[in-house]
Structure formats: C-alpha cells, structure tokens
Amino acid sequence: MKLLRNTSLISVCLLCATLSGCASTTAGGAVGAQRSQLMLISSSELEKMAAQSYAKLKADATSKGELNRDAALSKRVGAIANRIKPHTAVFRKDAPGWNWEVNVIASDELNAFCMPGGKIMFYSGLINQLHLSDDEIAIVMGHEIAHALREHSREQVSHAIAAQTAINIGTSLLGLGQTSAEIGNTAYEALIASKFSRNDESEADDIGLELSARSGYDPRAGVTLWQKMIAAKSGGNPPEFLSSHPEDAKRVERIQSLLPTVLPLYEAAHRSGR
Ligand SMILES: [Zn+2]
To answer: Which residues of 165-200 are buried (b: 16+ CB within 10 A; e: fewer)?
Structure first.
C-alpha cells in the first residue's frame, strides 16, 4: 500500500516536472521556429557548466600555443560575431546581453560551436581549408548561435535527466533517491557529448540563415558553404559538426527553399547600411 502511494506520488512529481519544464526558448522569427521543449535543468546551471568547459578548452589551447595564434583571423571572426549578436534579439530579447566570447583555435579540425550562453569557438582548419568567405563563416556562426538560442544542449541534457530519472524510479521505491550530484553528472555528460538531433539541426539552419541575412551576410552563401562541406566529406575529411546533420542534399534544398523568405531581410540590411 505504501509502495503504491509512493509510486503515484512519483508519477505526479514527474508529470509536474514535465509540465513546468515545457517551454519554447525563442520567438519564431521570419522562418517560424516554433516547438515546445522539455527543460528539466535551469539555463543558469547549464551556462555555468558551459563556461567552465569553455575556460578549460581555452586554457588547454593556450598551453599548446593554439589560442588565437592568427591575430588577423581572430579579428575577422570576432567582427562577424559582433555584427550578428544584436540580431539575436529577434529570437531572444536576452541574448544580446549574454556574456559572449569568441575565440579561434589553431587546428586542422573542421569544427565550430557555440556553447550555451554564447561561448563561440572556431577551429582555423574549417575556415582555411575550405577557404570560407565572410558570408560562409556567418552562415556557420549563425547556425551554431542558433543551437545556443534554442538551448538545444539544455533540452538534450533534460532528456538525459528524464531517462536517468525513469531508471532511478526503481531505486527510489527502495528508498535510494537520486542525488543532485548524480543529476549533475548526467547533465555534464550530455553537455560535453552534444550530438544534436536532425530536427535541432534543421532549426539551427533556419534560424542561422535568418540571423546572417539580418546581419547583412548573403544567405545564398548557405548553398556554397554546404557544397564545400559535401566536397570535404567525400574527400574523406568529414567536418566534425556534420556527423549528425540532415542529409546533405535535403539540407541544400531546404536552404534554397528559405531564400525567398530571408533574401528580403538581407536586402533590407544592405539598404540600411549593414
Ligand atoms: Zn548543428
């Protein structure tokens, strides 16, 4: 009987957590990114973890002489970020006020990411080996920033916690509750092993395209960027962040289908001198 009461209590708690944890992190923008998201960890908790991971990454790169080794490249990437940042307000009013950071690591890796809270990292190999134009860098950056705006990592961590909580219901019934330290470990593991779903990737493509267009970067660079990515992939050097991305052909098609929506934003940006 006691067992039964405990079970229903746990079910109610889980339901509450699920209901209170469902939200949309951003406004839809012109591309209409709308979807309810499961969130079981706070933004501030995750941002703290992300800031620590980012600081460690920078410290490791500094010790190897790899952090911002090419001053001109770092300046170029930083300038693109500065142009994009104000336009994040279209999707989230709080984002321009984030504690943004932009750094470049000297590495052959074809990689770039933006951690929760606006911690951007580019790997020089991506820009140098694929000879990316500023427009193409802006498309990559917009995509990575979109993951942070939509808090895809937080959502992923929340799903990991939910799965872990479900497993732990059995132990809870035996009086062995899940400690906050265990939840923290689950969250951290999910954060550092961020592999986004295809749906997340499509959302990031859409939002990223709009962000770069509003910042005055040509959204048609989305097409040339992916052509370069596909060429790198078939050349046996798949870009790291391409691994879980939607099928390449569909991706290019999707970007092309969004051009009529975002090109007017790009043209308006140019008219206003951006
Ligand atoms: Zn992505």
So the answer is: beebeeebeeeeebeeeebeebbbebbeebebeeeb
